[in-house]
Amino acid sequence: MQEAPFGADRPTRRLFFVGGVHGRTGTSVVKRLLCAHPQVSAVSGGETRMLEAVSEVWPMLDPDLGYTPGTASTALAEFAQHVRETLGDTPEVQAALNGLSADLGAGSVRLVGRPRLPLPPPTSSGDLVRSFGRFVTDVFAACALDPARPYLCEKTPSNAQYIRRLRLLFPDARVVVMVRHPVHVALSHTRRDWGPPDPVEAAHYTAAYFRSWREAFSEDSAVLLVRHERLVSEPGQVLEEVRAFLGLTADADWLKWAGGAIRSSQDRTTSLPESGLADMHTALALELEQHGYRTRTESS
Predict the structure, then answer these.
(1) How many Cβ atoms sit within 10 Å of the Cβ of residue 55?
(2) Does pTM top 0.85 for this prediction?
(3) In this predicted structure, what is the pLDDT of residue 217?
(4) Distance between CA atoms of 239 and 55, rounded to whole angstroms?
(5) Taking the chain, what is the end-to-end CA distance rounded to the nearest angstrom?
């Protein structure tokens, strides 16, 4: 029997994404609550960083950007390795990767001093949209934790930085973006191994990320911005708005449980000296204003 194309026999699922304007904005909590809804399944593998990976390989395949045979074959091989590491080296994942190579018209080649790798030809932007859109849809469906549920949720905080590419690849997908007071976001990074330990340095780091989001984002009816502070103060109302935005069926039991599962975050600004807090507000002044948060002058 001839094998059907990968994904051909999979039921259609609605895909939605959760991202955040920087990390520590509540994306994990929102994903956990939404995936408890009876219609929603998570994609396995945790944070797949799939949009990051697609955005890295994309210009190496586009003749109008950075295509050369060597960079294209290396970039596609590294992309495949990332997919296997995050979603698992399973037959389903490999089948999806084989389907992507076939869509791109990649042939096998041995470059000087390198192992044999797939070599894709120069690929137009329109063909990249179709190939990667199909690949991500198929591989996420193959990696659904509960294949019977009609909605798939993928959560990676950096999804918010790739809204334009996300909307290009998945024009029907919905996106929930979490935003939190920049000062609290900055302080949360001082407790992470990868974050700046100094609060003022963390504020400058956070300001750059918020600015990047602001420059990349444009109003879109498929994107819902959810403030962490409002989720904490009005959990039932906010979760009902998110449910309706995603098109999930109303479920009173889920809403009652999910609303009761929201907990307030610790306010770490109270442990800072006044001078340090003032310096953080100064570093973040523009982003506080642009994102609708009160500045220190307005709060006093």
Answers:
(1) 17
(2) yes
(3) 82
(4) 31
(5) 74
Q: What is the DSSP letter of 63?
A: T
176 in helix, strand or coil?
strand
- In whole angstroms, give the CA distance from residue 58 to residue 111: 21
* CA distance linking residue 10 with residue 30, whole number of Å: 27
pLDDT of residue 197: 87
Q: Which residues contact 9 (CB under 8 A, 6 or more apart)?
A: none
* Cα dihedral 120, 125, 130, 133 sign: positive
Q: How far apart are CA 101 and CA 76, in angstroms?
A: 9
> Where do the H-state alpha helices sit in the chain?
27-34, 50-61, 69-87, 91-104, 125-142, 163-169, 182-189, 199-216, 228-233, 235-246, 252-260, 274-283, 285-290, 296-299
CA 165 to chain centre: 11
CA distances from 133 to 34, 126, 193 (A): 23, 11, 34
Amino acid at 121: P
Beta strand pairing status for 174-179 and 40-42?
A: unpaired
| DSSP code, position 25 | S
CA distance 28 to 225: 15
Q: Within the chain, which residues score under 70 in pLDDT?
A: 1-12, 109-115, 193-195, 296-300
- Please tell me whether residue 42 adopts helix, strand or coil conformation: strand
CA 295 to chain centre: 29
